[in-house]
Write a structure and sequence with these properties.
This protein has 4 helices and 5 strands; from the N terminus they run E-H-H-E-E-H-H-E-E. By secondary structure, it is of the alpha+beta class. It has a single domain (about 10-140), classed as 2-Layer Sandwich (Heat Shock Protein 90), CATH 3.30.565. A hairpin with a 2-residue loop joins strand 2 and strand 3 (about 80-85). The chain is globular, with a radius of gyration of 15 Å.
Length: about 140
Amino acid sequence: MSEQNKPEILKMEVEALSKNEEFARVAVAVFMARLNPTIEEVDDVKTAVSEAVTNAVIHGYQGNGGIIYLEVGVDHQDIIITIKDTGIGIPDIKLAMEPMYTTDPDGARSGMGFSFMEAFMDEVEVISTPDEGTAVTMKKKING
């Protein structure tokens, strides 16, 4: 594969703290600028990233800390984002992706995280293993 056809990739690790959610959003927004996205496309991607990172902090690590792994790839006009944790995992992905479903014991969360990701991105794939973690991969074509 020639250098020109090779996808561009950003990889980063952040501590699983709520305050790092905004950092992840901004880093992805800056990285995707090379695709000349519309403001709406940037906002869509930032919202999806925010939801995925928040899920990792609140549900994956249950607020007990850990590392969130973020990988962003740009391939032609597609942005592909994977947000991964090594937390508790999701025993029933189908149930977890249902609107309004939440495992938040305080009831402060709406249970709409995956619904927002699916609404703002073209594709969302969730792979999870209990006690090993979760990887959420999202893809969006940027038309700019």
